[in-house]
């Protein structure tokens, strides 16, 4: 069971993680994009961290506000995608003070469905969805096997990292990288890398 304090911890850790990873994400995006993914994520998550001193009636309202903040501060392709993820993540958690592993699973599914509806990516398009999809499957499998939310998130993060690495050889079919066609192959997708960081951060903080 994760309480609101844990989610506050997660969002704080996420801002720190994105600040530390800014250069790396920008390097990835400079190879197949416009070299702004690191600054986009660092700016957006820093704005979310600024919310954390405020009072929120429940976890869902915190996550929803975090999503709206990402939409308004990140811009680009990733702002609406991550913003939608957090806004949808909040939905199934409405009114809950303690979040169980199964409840978080339903919330993650809603969040990833939001990413899909927004971005219309398919598996293998070389996007963040290539990290989200295996992560979600690994999370569900872990919970079905009896894992609590922390270890299930650990399994999800590991699967996301494998999905991220598998984007390397792919030719991008969505987003800016798709403009490069075949030349996008041979580089890891920046959004799949930031999704992996987000899940690793969740695995460190939610339990
Ligand atoms: P921009 O491309 O507008 O500069 P960012 O650099 O912040 O935005 O984010 C780029 C990332 O967004 C890509 O690496 C990819 O993972 C993700 N992305 C782009 N388009 C889509 C899409 N249609 N569906 C899912 N993810 C996408
Ligand atoms: Mg970019
Ligand atoms: Mg951009």
TrEMBL record:
Q: Domain DhaL: where?
A: 5-204
Question: What Gene3D superfamilies does UniProt report for this protein, alphabetically?
Answer: 1.25.40.340
Entry GO CC: cytosol
Alphabetical UniProt keywords: Kinase, Transferase
Instruction: Report the InterPro entries cross-referenced here.
Output: DhaK_L_YcgS, DhaL_dom, DhaL_dom_sf, Dihydroxyacetone_Kinase
**Highest taxon listed in the record's lineage:** Bacteria
List the GO biological process terms: glycerol catabolic process
Q: Which GO terms describe its molecular function?
A: glycerone kinase activity
Q: What is this protein called?
A: Dihydroxyacetone kinase
Lineage of origin: Bacteria, Bacillati, Actinomycetota, Actinomycetes, Micrococcales
């Amino acid at each position: 069971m994760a309480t609101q304090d844990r989610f506050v911890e997660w969002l704080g850790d996420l801002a720190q993680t994105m600040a530390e990873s800014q250069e790396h994400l920008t390097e990835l995006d400079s190879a197949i994009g416009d070299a702004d993914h690191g600054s986009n994520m660092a700016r957006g998550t820093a704005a979310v961290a600024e919310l954390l001193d405020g009072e929120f009636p429940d976890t869902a309202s915190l996550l929803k506000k975090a999503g709206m903040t990402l939409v308004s501060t990140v811009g680009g392709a990733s702002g609406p995608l991550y913003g939608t993820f957090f806004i949808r993540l909040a939905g199934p958690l409405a009114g809950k003070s303690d979040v169980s592993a199964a409840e978080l699973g339903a919330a993650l599914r809603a969040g990833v469905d939001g990413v899909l509806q927004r971005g219309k990516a398919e598996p293998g398009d070389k996007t963040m969805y290539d990290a989200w999809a295996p992560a979600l499957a690994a999370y569900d499998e872990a919970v079905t096997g009896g894992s609590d939310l922390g270890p299930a998130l650990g399994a999800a993060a590991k699967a996301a990292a494998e999905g991220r690495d598998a984007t390397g050889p792919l030719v991008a079919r969505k987003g800016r990288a798709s403009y490069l066609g075949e030349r996008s192959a041979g580089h890891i997708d920046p959004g799949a890398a930031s999704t992996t960081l987000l899940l690793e951060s969740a695995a460190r903080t939610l339990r």
